[in-house]
Design goal:
631 residues, 8-stranded mixed sheet, Rossmann fold, 3 domains, alpha/beta, Serine Threonine Protein Phosphatase 5, Tetratricopeptide repeat, 54% helix, Alpha-Beta Plaits, globular, 26 helices, single chain
Amino acid sequence: MLREERVKRRLAAIMAAEVVGFNRLMDANEEATLTSLQQHRAELIGPAVTRHDGRIFKTMGGGFLAEFASALEAAACARDIQQGMAERNAGLPQDRHILFRIGINLGDVLVKDDDVFGDDVNLAARMVAFAAPGGSVCSAGIRFQIGTRLDIGFRDLGERAVRNIEKPLHVFMIECASPAPRPREAAPAAGRHAGGERPSLAVLPFTNMSGDPQQEYFSDGITEDLITDLSNVSELFVLSRNAVFRHKGKPADMERIAGELGVGYLLHGSVRKAGGRVRITAQLTEGASGGQVWADRYDRDLTDIFALQDEITRSIVEQLKVKLLPRERRAIEQAPTANVEAYTYVLRGRDYFHRGSRTYFLMARRMFAKAIELDPLYARAYAGLADCDAFLYMDYSEDVVLSVLENSGKALALEPGLVEARASRGLALSIAHRYAEAEAEFAVALAGGADLFEVHYFYGRSCYAQGKLDRTALHWERAAEIRPDDYQALILLNQVYASMGREEEAVRAALRGVERAERAFARNPENPRPAYFMATALAKLGQSGRAAQWAKTALAISPDDYLTRYNILCYHSVSGHLDEAFSLVEALLPLSNDEMKEWILADSDLDPLHGDPRWEQVRLAVGAATQRSGG
């Protein structure tokens, strides 16, 4: 009989590490997050642990547990990991940063086989909560073992209550030389961003209290404008839209959300718009405790909306005791338009535009045109008008290229620093096949620092038209991250990855896209776009029953819509219904412009048709039509 392995005891320094906002990062892009973590573990974390005579004995999610024979080596390893991660995050968008919280405890542990366990291991894991994102903490035992033998400092955070532990734990913040973080003292430490002394803040989506779901565009617009205004304050670290809008409509557990997002403070509230009046409630909550720092309620005329946003921004700045530079104050106080009604039309137009069907493009176009009528100098309205016309040209073959170029140029002339205008101009130049000029505009838009959905989505369309599939995938992946409710980029990515032979990524993109599309259809069941996108994606995933049902739904909603019929063509193609597919190709070709005909020839969803003799006739018809039009 084999002798049972004896449980041994030994004194060890235990390091616990967790990734800040791991669930958020995984929701945004599971594959990219896992790939990045694997690289960090292989290239930085694993070698650092080995170099300091340690051993990782457990991994979980984005975190790990490691043991060291020396307190000195454990702390030195934590320093190296945090400094290495700061260097690796440099140059990446803030919402893509991978930040670790690290806790180190010294104690008597139990060892069996390769596992290490015991109360002191649990203490290290729970101590992590007291570390700032990108920072490390340790117990008193670690601090006094090290003394002054290492080039790090300690800040005494005092005794802290630990869940399910009877006695409080004496905790010290580890302070390293640059570039390691230096959070401020005690409980508010998590309120500071890991890159320095800036308080960290997330503006959660304000709740629409108007009783009308169609007013959602207004509360979302208020949230986005507050994010923009607060992001102008250099002494604040503010999370981007895509990081916070994942929490829209979810139960508001402030402590949990702050922990997931890795911020010290949350701004949240509600908006009620009725007639010419608006009521906004706003609250600033400390993430570590869930305690309310500040709250106010504003009842104003709708015409005061910009002044009201400025007031809220100034209140947050005052509460967090940060300085507002003169140029930052001017940027915050600069209203996008002098006409509040025009502003509401632009917000509504943006909401319609992102729904992505002809009906909504036309509705959005009317909203932007009305905004221009009210304020002829409103740059965002001209950019929106150009975007609508661009997609009416690309997707519905409407002859509007000149107006796209004219309106995008007008937007840029009115506000040269407006990133949306640069993105619109890039798209306009792209559909005019002026690709070198388009590239220059997109480059300026990206250099502007505003990581906008439109920039990446439009740039992806331009790259796809040029056959640059690797760059198309890069931009559409980023677009899908920036707008966590967008399904279109993901389902288009499925095609791109399939064309590149990256089948696993194609499947993942389709699955994520279908999940989002179902939510989008539930919000707007009169829109055929999520339905026909799901039909094709599900057919490729082998879910033929669900695919057929969504195809029927799309046709029931909008049977004569060009894009509905085109995507049902794609559904029939990937489902192997070749006769139905060729019947639709024959009907749609005479209605298609050169841009759409090029798309038909390049669309990987139609690859199953290429082996049929009828496809040669399609190819010849496209070529003949292009020659007649001078293409």
